[in-house]
Amino acid sequence: MIMHRHVFAAAGFLFLTLGAAAQTPPPPPANGAVPGAKLPPGEGRDLVIRTCSKCHDPSNAAAEDLDGPGWKLLVDQMAANGANATDPEFAEIVAYLTKTFPAK
Fold this sequence. Notes:
With 104 residues, the chain is mainly α. Helix 3 crosses helix 4 (87-100). The longest helix is centred in the N-terminal third of the chain and has 22 residues, at 2-23. Mean pLDDT is 80; it is low at 6-21. It has helices at 2-23, 45-52, 68-80, 87-100. It has a domain at 36-100: Orthogonal Bundle (Cytochrome Bc1 Complex, Chain D, domain 2).
């Protein structure tokens, strides 16, 4: 019984640690670049920068090859990982990414 408590305590600590790490903002780029500065203009760009740059450089989106449902799935995953926006804001982010970075 005591061993189970230790296992559960260790598992709980691990999940708390991983959760805190997921919420830790990335360090600023070494070259002084502004996160998201390379994103093309368009409706939703500023929202993408504000929402996504808390965890990563939003310019990473340019490397993805996703269609609308793929972008929605990815944005839903980011929301589940702690991205903070309203449902209408997440919809705007998906619309911007779908239009700006369509599947090839």
